[in-house]
Structures
1.
Amino acid sequence: MQENNLTFQAVQAQDVSRTFISKVFMWMAGALILTAITSFFIAANFETVLPYFVNSTGEKLSALFWVTIFAPFLLVLIMSSTVNKLPLSALSIMYIIYSVLMGVSLSFIFLAYELPTIGITFAVTAGTFIIMAVLGFTTKTDLTKFGSLLLMALFGIIIAMVVNIFAGSPTANYIISILGVLIFTGLTAYDVQKLKNYSAQIDEFNNTAGKIALMGALTLYLDFINLFLFLLRIFGRKN
């Protein structure tokens, strides 16, 4: 009888884990779809929308442009710092707003890159992401140490990107882009494994589980978007 109970508990734990991971990827997919729709809509109406972001000569950026650029970053900070205080509904609203704002920001890549290039890069990103997500979910290797190193490397390339804004080195930009692809490819596997480990410890009926799923989706969303942008910088042909 005790053996049957243990088997039942193990099966139940696996079901909870699958449900949790499914919620994470549903949240992530929803955000990507919302971002894509917003981005395509803005890109298709650039003539109407662009005057809100730049002046008539195209030389001065408006306040709305800077709000669009920095608001997503601020939303991530707010969500991360208040996740234990705010209800899931409030976090969900901020997550949706964040996805829309990212769509507005990313719409400008249509001015710099050709549509086929963007589509191909997105497909490569999706394929790479799926492979690394499956690897992170199925591997028995503990990726914690690798994750710590990747996070340190991420801070390193952020500093390098800031420095290169002033240096303007094409070679440095190319090296940073390659490192960015490697880092976010690795972080995808690490983050999926981390979420899998979380799923083994949560109560599916606890409101905290919904918050963790949402924040986990945000993490994977950021992995995907950054991987896409770094790949686009390497392979994209500018208009």
2.
Amino acid sequence: MTDWHTWHGDFFQSIRTLVTGGAGFIGSHLTEALLALGAQVVVIDDLSGGDRANLEPLAQQAGNRLRFVEGSILDEKTLANCVQGCRYVFHQAALGSVPRSVAQPRLFTQVNVTGTLNVLEAARAAGVARVTFAASSSAYGDSPTLPKIESMPPMPRSPYAATKLAGEALMRAYGSSYDLDTVSLRYFNIFGPRQNANSAYAAVIAAFAKALLSDQQPVIYGDGQQSRDFTFVTNAVHANLLAARCDQPIEGEVLNVACGQRVTVTQLAKQMAQSFGKPKLEPVYEAQRAGDVKHSLADLTRVKQTLGYEPIEPFAAGLDQTMAWYAAALGQTCG
């Protein structure tokens, strides 16, 4: 377990914060860290992708420092109520999944774009100091240039990527137009405990864990040579906390959040099978999905210069923790 005081001291002690999507995968980890640092945390989540169970252990420890509101970022009145008195907003709420966005582009635009506008408007009205936004590396599209640098022209290949890019534009516009500082953190393939393995659109590590623990072969869409900069969730949380603490205006800057390391999907499947003691469960390959990109690798120069960010949990250690969590959650043990 990360000792967040080592990295962030007492900065967040007694500070009121709002985490949108705080019952979800990344949001609940961020909520946990903020509570450990002594913050007062309001969580708004409509539970369409989150789970109240992610917050239950935290609620028992935090008492009245945690307030959970079941509601949508499309509900302006509820959002305005939640943000009152907050100094920072961590905007994690969104619909995820590239393939689901291809199937439901209008819904994704409504939640991810209009919802983000609502969060910014509520934050502006409440006098919030800074909004940190969960952006996505999918904005880079399929440019062959590696590593991905924030100054590259965005080339979204899916409705999901387009909605996240629109969110970045709103962050930059509000950071330039109003007395509200903003920052967009472009996450690269975040993984870790609590990531939902039961969705039809589950992220690859979660999907592989569920398959392997069910004695099924993991399914790879494409030739398996596609590579990703897999980033353990602790690093995403760390970047959010650094962004909130930054003592200089960020003004909507886009910053990569990753580990700066490439792993192919085939390598990942075989490593996970080996770790679970099931090396004979070789991956099976199916057609590539619409909107998927071939390679992803982050340049971390700008985020290091702006926030002092360095990954604090490497890929291998994060993967070990994640697999142990899935094994426990599904009632099995790693081999």
